[in-house]
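[step 3/7] fold_predict: job queued, chain A
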Amino acid sequence: GGYWFSNRTRQLPVETAAESPAPVSLSASTQKILTGLTASIEIRFFAPDDAVTLPENLRSYITRVAQLLAEYERVAAGKLHVRRSDPQTDAAAKTAASAAGVVPFGSETGEIVYLGLTVGNGTQIESIAPLAPEWEAALESDLSRAIQRLTSQTAVTKPARPGGRTAAQPEPINPATSEQLLKMFPD
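[step 4/7] structure written:
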């Protein structure tokens, strides 16, 4: 009886199907913006290339953002280019991320992570930072609005401010300082 019971309780190996990522589909308004581009747009994606030590939810989020950006690039048909940079390993990318307002944060595993986007059209650049999984649903609309603002600004020049003064630009955050603060105060 014991032999029969042990054979009945043994679990058979279960085959698991590999989950393929769901295809990204852009909204009709985003597609309209991308197909109507008249000027070249560059998107710079600041994210770690090797995300093995990051928590799974952050790794999968970075993958989904990369898929979204690839779909933007595909629909724009040569008018939009995505460039990925890893501030964790590239000092020039760290400086560019800092200048764009991409502030590092500490992940659950304690690793310092830079995660953000810049959308550029020549000398005009808009930042979308920080990127967070909690705001993933708004990323497409935020990115599309940034592209639309940049393309509309090239057609219309801004009038000069009264008195000839321009708005003061804040100094970029020093990446070494922000990383040191994150190490001292991880939360």
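[step 5/7] annotate
DSSP finds six helices and six strands in the chain.
The radius of gyration is 22 Å.
exit 0
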